[in-house]
Design brief:
The protein is of the alpha/beta class and 226 residues long. It has helices at residues 25-36, 72-78, 115-125, 140-152, 181-188, 218-225, and strands spanning 16-20, 40-48, 82-86, 131-133, 156-158. Its EC number is 6.3.1.14.
């Protein structure tokens, strides 16, 4: 069964948004974009590793789980209700574009489908919910899967950061040459984004707890040189 076309909000309509959060900087920055554009974030939703008190993150094609242990603090810090559920299954459908005929019954083993019961639970508690946002930037794999699930549930998918590196710079950054435009913009609004794990060539333990969105830009310049 092909999902229905994406619901289109009327111009100027304020949406009631479920914000998908991972513990990373991008999902939180996407939440800020929702508010900046006049929408209301009514709930937070998070998928965590199967054992909720596990300290280690898991390898996933779809979900970022590093730092998942601090997610409960989001509810306190933002004063927005939080809903969580475990990730089940794995990356069964690894095609770049998620299958258009997916249903809850056809592929319950794919980790993407973990979103369905979580979002349904949020919608039961918040029947006014009509949109969902995520922090996808360049991952077509992630974005199309969220869109697939959102459309099946009648939610408008929002991806404020999509293709952010190639979008025109905001007026506050006009004329500034940088390879880290997203981080510069996060710094501009006062975000604090700390490195809590390194798994990349050139980045060693000396980068841990560095603030990549600090106003002085020291860590960003250090990363660009790495």
């Amino acid at each position: 069964m092909t999902p229905s076309p994406q619901p289109q909000p009327q111009q100027g309509q304020s949406l009631n948004v479920i914000a998908l959060i991972s513990g990373g900087k991008d999902s939180l920055y996407s939440l800020l974009h929702c508010i900046r554009n006049g929408h209301k974030v009514i709930a937070l939703a998070n998928l965590h590793p199967p054992v909720q008190d596990a300290q280690e993150d898991i390898d996933s094609f779809m979900y970022q789980t590093i730092g998942h242990a601090v997610i409960p603090l989001y509810e306190q810090a933002l004063d927005i209700p939080l809903y969580r559920a475990p990730i089940s299954g794995g990356a069964v459908d690894t095609a770049r574009i998620y299958r258009n005929d997916a249903t809850e019954e056809s592929a319950p083993e794919d980790e993407t489908e973990s979103l369905v019961p979580l979002l349904k639970r949020v919608m039961q508690c918040h029947p006014e919910a009509n949109a969902v946002c995520a922090g996808a930037i360049l991952s077509t794999y992630q974005r199309t899967r969220i869109e697939n699930v959102a459309c099946r549930l009648g939610l408008t998918p929002l991806a404020w950061l999509w293709n952010y590196p190639v979008l025109p710079a905001p007026v506050e950054r006009a004329g500034v040459a940088t390879q880290a435009g997203l981080l510069e913009d996060m710094a501009g609004v006062g975000c604090e984004a700390r490195i809590i794990k390194v798994a990349s060539g050139g980045l060693d333990e000396g980068f841990l707890w560095g603030d990549v969105s600090s106003r002085d830009g020291l860590v960003r310049r250090k990363i660009e040189r790495a």
